[in-house]
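ok so for the tutorial part 2 we go from a plain amino acid sequence to predicted structure tokens. step 1 is just haveing the sequence, like this:
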Amino acid sequence: MIEQMTDLPAGALGFTARGKVTAADYENVFVPDVEAAFALNRKLRLLYHVGPEFTGFEPGAMWDDTKLGFRHWSGWERIALVTDINWLRLVARTMGFTVPGEFRLYRNEQLAEAKAWVSESFREHHA
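step 2 — the prediction. this is what the tokens look like for a chain of 127 residues:
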């Protein structure tokens, strides 16, 4: 399942993946929330937390994630991935250069730091 975080400012979205993430989770939670945010904001910041309760992705779920990323390629200002799952960290380190905008990888114990980074105001970032 995917749940949206509620403690981030406008222009920043956060999601937590728990248990098995399905294509329906992306279609019913992730995609509509991201599309609604892009309707209001030209640029978005995203925090994606894959915590210890995560058990895996259904094959279609990853494809839905990829399609959404390409559809809004230039709209991502910052993306943070928070996880201790080794294979996800490896993919992120290997493919991080292909992610649009700024990308940072965090461990679960750094969740608060990741939230602070995606929440920094645009002015603070360019000061």
